[in-house]
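#random but structural
TW: two for the price of one
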Amino acid sequence: PSISKLLSATGEFRRNTERRSEDVDLLVSEFLEHCPIDSSRARLAIRRMNAMHAKYKIANGDYVYVLCIFACQALMFIDKHGWRRIHKNEKIASYVYWRYIGEQMRIKEIPDS
């Protein structure tokens, strides 16, 4: 995806690798640990993430790509290495959750499944 080109062009992965990783961890943790529907902390984290990305011209498809990684990667890892496979209802719940996050980030054209 073109997001790699943008990250390379900004130098964020070369110059600020650790800071960027910590920023992502802190922000994503806020809306994973606190329900974004009723948590001001989670909503603030999403707004902050939107503000951080607003200064760059990021294609919607890149946002969708990264959202899908967050939505699917952990489930795929658990299915492969966990003590049991992820139940269909857990997959649906994860999709609904990450779709909501994507909508709060104003991401368009999020896949229906």
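TW: number two ↓
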Amino acid sequence: FMPRPLQMYVLLACQTETRGGVRDKPGKNPDYYHTCYALSGLAVSQHTLDGELIVGDSKNRLHPTDPFYNIAIEKAERKCAYFDALPPLVVDG
């Protein structure tokens, strides 16, 4: 896993200058799937167990996300607390 090259690729090759969204690679059109996928990878590569690494300007910084659920860390923690507080699920039969 190499955070710096991943960030450089997403920031330099995957953004379009004329419209929003992120694309798979230069020459392709941006779409929702690749926008979500690329931003998820960008967030995970910025916030690793070794600390924070932001390539380029500080405006490139994304909020930390839970890599398993792909949502903000705080929301993942709230989800876990909510379900942990529920009684055990019992399935009949």
